[in-house]
């Protein structure tokens, strides 16, 4: 079974603005199914497509199955079947030997910046970059599937 152990944090805008950043990648993602117990997501990046099935979160852990699909098929699935979607830029930052994915949201979620780190287990230790602020792991309003239906700007 595929598992994802992920912790989420809000990002300080000023400190992030001053940080050295790698090249960003544009993401468009939409949801074919959003249910409290499972989601089915399609994502198109600058170069690839993905279909992801995620189970219910229990703490920082949930089941996850992700499959690469052709980018043009991902866009077609988004256009034809997504019930909600969002856009963002993603930066992949290595800090203290850990990969952080920083999402700078666009559109109705503009103004929100969230950093995520995937771990091997829930008790794994890691250092926080200076641009990380408050932890929001488990806060449902920050789940991308929820941001696609109740965007940040509407809070």
From TrEMBL:
InterPro entries xrefs: CYTH-like_dom_sf, CYTH_domain, NeuTTM/CthTTM-like
PANTHER family: SLR0698 PROTEIN
Domain annotation CYTH: ranges: 2-149
Pfam families for this protein: CYTH
Protein name: Adenylate cyclase
């Amino acid at each position: 079974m595929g598992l994802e152990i992920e912790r989420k944090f809000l990002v300080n805008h000023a400190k992030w603005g001053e940080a050295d950043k790698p090249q960003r990648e544009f993401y468009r993602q939409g949801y074919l199914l959003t249910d409290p117990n499972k989601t089915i997501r399609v994502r198109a990046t600058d170069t690839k497509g993905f279909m992801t099935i995620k189970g219910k979160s229990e703490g920082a852990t949930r089941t996850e199955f992700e499959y690469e699909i052709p980018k043009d098929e991902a866009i077609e699935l988004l256009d034809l079947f997504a019930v909600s979607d969002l856009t963002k830029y993603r930066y992949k930052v290595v800090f203290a030997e850990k990969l952080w994915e920083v999402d700078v949201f666009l559109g109705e979620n503009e103004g929100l910046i969230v950093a995520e780190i995937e771990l091997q287990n829930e008790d794994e230790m890691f250092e926080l970059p200076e641009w990380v602020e408050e932890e929001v792991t488990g806060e449902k309003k920050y789940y991308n599937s929820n941001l696609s239906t109740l965007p940040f700007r509407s809070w």
